[in-house]
Design a protein that fits this description.
233 residues, Urease accessory protein UreF, mainly alpha
Amino acid sequence: MLTQPVGVLSASSLIQLIWLASPALPVGGFSYSEGLEIAVERAGVTNERTASDWLEDQLHLTLARADLAVIAQAIPAWRSEDFDRIRQLNDWVLQTRETSELRAQTEQMGRSLLAWLHNHEGANLAHLQACTDLPPTYPVAFALAASQTQAGVRDCLLAYAFGWAENMVQAALKSVPLGQSSGQRILARLGGGIPAAVELIMLLPDDARQAFSPMLAILSSQHETQYSRLFRS
């Protein structure tokens, strides 16, 4: 009889993580470029190399130090039902979204994921009730969904980051524009950088968490009045 090796995810938990990372998850991630669309017009992102450089910088400078750092803390908080800590983390996400578009994105995706969880078999009702007064931002809502699996924090962060990478590559294909082969090369580069980003964040103390990205904030503000656009951010 086969036994599962220590530290290996169960099949059900692995499927749950793949599901949460899937672009098919109905949270609207496909409708956001997180500043990439305006970077095509104003910041010289015009080909595979510059798009790849932009997204890798975004992975390490903003996603890792902000969203991933929040999720790393929020998963154990959900599992221990430390709702004060959850609120603190959720407030931090809202306070560090520097433009109306970026804040609207995290709020809308958080609401959508919470709605998905309400219809998801096995959802923790007490946790869903705790979300009533927040409401949860997307990183906090993702942490809630991931906390209901048996996966460790590291695996949850890897899933979140790869799901983000897939969405951003699709945004690059449409807005630069690029071909599918270019997209796969960019995704391979991002995938190669995700484990190191996650390992760093696993050791990051609260006072080192940050979302300081002034160029991204400026471009995001400019996107609000961009003449022709495909994406909501």
